[in-house]
Design brief:
Shape: elongated
Number of domains: 1
Structural class: alpha+beta
Strand order of the largest sheet: 1-2-3
Distance between the termini: 59 Å
Largest sheet: 3 strands, antiparallel
Radius of gyration: 17 Å
Number of helices: 3
Number of strands: 3
Order of helices and strands: HHEEHE
Length: 107
């Protein structure tokens, strides 16, 4: 019974780590959208830098897309591949793709 309980506890911890990364991705999308609203959707390097500075996410697994519509809104979508590399669980559960989108009005 102990191996099953241990595996279940590790799975709960891994879910917690994925949820933590989802919160960070949401914050990165909001920071990037704020930068896009102020600096403009054309300043992609500044927008990507804002997303990378928003939290301790690995920039190599972070992807930022910026779109602007004709109504003055800017939408930023942040995608992040969350690794499931916790002991034992990493082999059972594949990596998770997390996304978040934030829309703000241009200033």
């Amino acid at each position: 019974m102990l191996p099953v309980v241990t595996l279940a506890l590790l799975l709960v911890v891994q879910v917690g780590l994925v949820v933590h990364d989802q919160v960070l991705v949401t914050g990165a999308a909001r920071e990037a959208a704020r930068t896009a609203a102020v600096a403009g959707a054309e300043d992609v390097p500044a927008i990507e830098a804002a997303a990378e500075r928003a939290g301790p996410l690995d920039p190599a697994r972070l992807d930022v897309d910026v779109t602007a519509d004709g109504d003055g809104n800017v939408a930023v979508q942040v995608r992040y591949r969350c690794r499931t590399d916790l002991a034992l669980i990493g082999r059972l559960v594949p990596d998770v793709d997390l996304t978040a989108t934030a829309v703000m009005r241009r200033e």
